[in-house]
């Protein structure tokens, strides 16, 4: 069977298309068995770097409580290097023909065209205002109109909270090969080597571009960039701005955005669902529906190209370093839009978030997100102790405090469980006061608010959810299997991080893939023609539930907050740093029951499937992402990187393959379905 034949059958099975070679019933176990049979016939050994489509035997057709028919969204594993991963192809629309150059509208000075208050038109829609979204917007704005859609204020992103810095080979004694090796080792050898090489090679130029745009990084006494070292790195290669690097990058990018007349920023616009249509075998993205959370009005963005740069899903856990906006919206929307998802089991827990319980002066209110104590503190000589002031990291790893994050987080977790403590201590006070205050002014100031002087006393720390290594599967140019949809940043799974992200590689990846997505996006935009008047009417608009009344809406909001807390507690208890098959199955069952109970409550109160509200839509996205994490974790029968299970405590080389979650047509819950009916062209 050829690659094209297999993809043909796959796309038929997982779309609502009938074909004479297949049963006319909806894709269910009947269709799944056909695909399973195809997989088994194609099963072969994996040759690294092969361009051929090669699959291991499928072991994913099992029923769970998440869905009465399909559970794991067809999780399967295959190498990054095969024909449907980094070599995803962009096709022209079957029903849209390229326009001759003389007939194309002038692209460079196009501004948004308003159909009415509820619909806007742009060449490019960018969902997210972190480093990936802003850097991409600045480049594509040279070729068309751009809408930057952001959930809160433009600066409120994971980028703004990134303390440590950006890793890049900028020192003569360092090398691309060394950076690659560090990345692959940290990623537990699950990284895609081609992606790693691309990012490590192109990274230095992306740093120089930021400096040219006005980003200010720390310099040493010799006038050169001061390069820090962090856990997992063999060289000093971290470019930083004290301990507020992300904030400085965000400042420089937003300043440039403000000056660009082709870019319109829509703050407080929460993305609800991608607008997609199906043309033959192709799924096509035409923009996104949003709700303006200040006016409570639905706003539709029609675009030729959409970039998802919406960040991660840290708030599926009760304690996270992510800002409140990180509720997995992009991953969930992409999944509902039939995008392929990958490696969701690999959730990085940062080993050192500030433990409020250990502070001299207790906090008077709970935090929306945990305060991060950057990796650079350990890179600068910080030592971890338990509460008896016993240094423990050398017992777990020969690299001690400079071990990768997954190792350090598990070591701390083990200490806390063995000793029944609530936190450990990170001590940097043996360094000079001036050095500490110059390198970590933000951390020092935050701790001093609660009576802790880090130049004299150790910092209480505890692991917290920090980064999603999985996400929407992307090719080397940020492309997805949905035409017109590109991804960059934490929402994407490019293959760079493998099973565990190397410190300070996240901002680097965002910069590199934002740039790499530019040229194919421009080409796609130029070759696309959208009849705005027609396309905007394809989908019924979502409805804001004002008619339910304030009393009912208040009850729904209260119950949704309770459900959110319950979901987070389940994820921490059963899908945390250390896992087991029993715990994962318990999480699977309890999350499924909780979701059904919550949805039943909503509908009993008069809620309808087309209704939208910030809290309810965040909740559906959290459910969606939590289920993706659990189902992915259940398919990996080994311990690798961030996924550690006591039932399979060792690495299994036969399992050294990414987890892939294909879209399925049988979505039975509100969180799994798009609000609008799919348009078939």
UniProtKB/TrEMBL annotation:
GO BP, sorted A to Z: NAD+ biosynthetic process
Pathway assigned to this chain's UniProt record: Cofactor biosynthesis; NAD(+) biosynthesis; iminoaspartate from L-aspartate (oxidase route): step 1/1
Cofactor: FAD
Molecular function (Gene Ontology), one example: L-aspartate oxidase activity
EC number: 1.4.3.16
Signal peptide feature range: 1-20
Coiled-coil region(s): none
KW Oxidoreductase (keyword) present: yes
Record SUPFAM superfamilies: FAD/NAD(P)-binding domain, Succinate dehydrogenase/fumarate reductase flavoprotein C-terminal domain, Succinate dehydrogenase/fumarate reductase flavoprotein, catalytic domain
Record's keyword annotation contains Iron: no
Residue ranges annotated for the Fumarate reductase/succinate dehydrogenase flavoprotein-like C-terminal domain, each copy included: 564-655
Localization: Plastid, Chloroplast
Cellular component aspect of the GO annotation: chloroplast
Main location: plastid
Function: Involved in the biosynthesis of pyridine alkaloid natural products, leading mainly to the production of anabasine, anatabine, nicotine and nornicotine, effective deterrents against herbivores with antiparasitic and pesticide properties (neurotoxins); nornicotine serves as the precursor in the synthesis of the carcinogen compound N'-nitrosonornicotine (NNN). Catalyzes the oxidation of L-aspartate to iminoaspartate.
PANTHER family: L-ASPARTATE OXIDASE (PTHR42716), L-ASPARTATE OXIDASE, CHLOROPLASTIC (PTHR42716:SF2)
Family to which the UniProt record says this protein belongs: Belongs to the FAD-dependent oxidoreductase 2 family. NadB subfamily.
Record NCBIfam families: nadB (TIGR00551)
Protein known as: L-aspartate oxidase
